[in-house]
Amino acid sequence: MNNTEEIAILLATLVLFSIISYRKKALDKQGIIAGNIVGILIYFFGRAAFSTGLIPFFLIVLFFTLAEFATRYARLLRKTHHEIRSIGNILGNSGAALIALVFASPIGFFAAVSCALADTASSEIGLLSRKKPRLITSLKQVRAGTDGAVSKLGNAAAIAGAVAIALIHYALFQDLKAFGVIAFAGVFGMLVDSVLGASLQKQGILNNSNVNFLSCGIAAIAAALLYAYF
User: Fold this and answer.
1) Helix, strand, coil: what percent of the chain each, to 5?
2) DSSP track, 111-174
3) I need a surface site. Which of 9, 46, 97, 196 has the fewest CB within 10 A?
4) Torsion angle of C-alpha atoms 221, 226, 228, 230, degrees rounded to 10
5) What pLDDT does 101 receive?
6) Which pTM was predicted?
7) CA atoms lying within 13 Å on the CB side of residue 10
8) Beta partners for 150?
9) CA-based torsion, 96, 223, 152, 139: positive or negative
10) 80: helix, coil or strand?
11) Which of 119, 107, 120 is nearest to 169 (CA)?
12) Are the beta carbons of 105 and 46 closer than 8 angstroms?
């Protein structure tokens, strides 16, 4: 596939993404614009880290699709309102992955996406737990949705999300070591997110987007270091 064909696929997907996001009220206008810009940047920087920029581009599209599905599913069962996401959510969940590509780190990119999906799955599916979650820093029971709260159901969903991204990498590159590193980094990043949520976010020092960005960045760095060490 030549560059012209790839760019045509890229633009067609972005147009479809924008239309669906607008009609389904998944993103506001600023979020749609940010999503398009991030998608284009991931494609172009991804060409240096992968054989084609479409690999990282479609992985990030898959992440946002699965994240939106998890959110809508949890809100439907709980009969609660689904808020429209904006630019902060886009940058918080994909910013670290984009930076990993700027530094030409495919492992870091997959780990950042793994963390983002693990955290989203943990937060959204965890809301469906019949038992009250516990604050990760004190293990005290708190109400569902509390920043830094974790549950067995949420943790299981996080592991499933992280492993799913790791499996995609394995299917593409047949690298067992990378599979383990990406899966581990995704779950590790989710736990870091919970700790930051229970501490700095609770104190008002960071907001949710900041926490997401930092935890995914830490997951990317951890994965790159672990992969190089082992």
Assistant:
1) 75, 5, 20
2) HHHHHHHHHHHHHHHHTT-SSPPEETTT--B--TT-TTEE-HHHHHHHHHHHHHHHHHHHHHH-
3) 9
4) 180
5) 97
6) 0.95
7) 26
8) 134
9) negative
10) coil
11) 107
12) no
- Total residues found in the chain within this entry: 230
Read off the pLDDT band of 181 (50, 70, 90).
Answer: very high
Residues 6 or more apart from 42 whose CB is under 8 A from it? 53, 56, 57, 60, 94, 97, 98, 101
Residue 78 φ/ψ, nearest 5 degrees:
-85, -10
- Give pLDDT tens digits for 23-33: 988 899 999 99
Q: Do β-strands 149-150 and 134-135 pair in parallel, antiparallel, or remain unpaired?
A: antiparallel
- CA dihedral over 141, 144, 96, 159, signed as positive or negative: positive
pLDDT band at 182; cut points 50, 70, 90: very high
For the segment 62-116, what is each residue's pLDDT rounded down to a tens digit?
999 999 988 888 777 777 776 788 899 999 999 999 999 999 999 999 999 999 9
Q: What local confidence, expressed as pLDDT, does residue 143 receive?
A: 87
Residue 170 to residue 45: CA distance in whole angstroms: 21
The tokens describing 224, both together, are 């790159």
The tokens describing 191, both together, are 């736990």
Tokens 């886009």 found at: 90
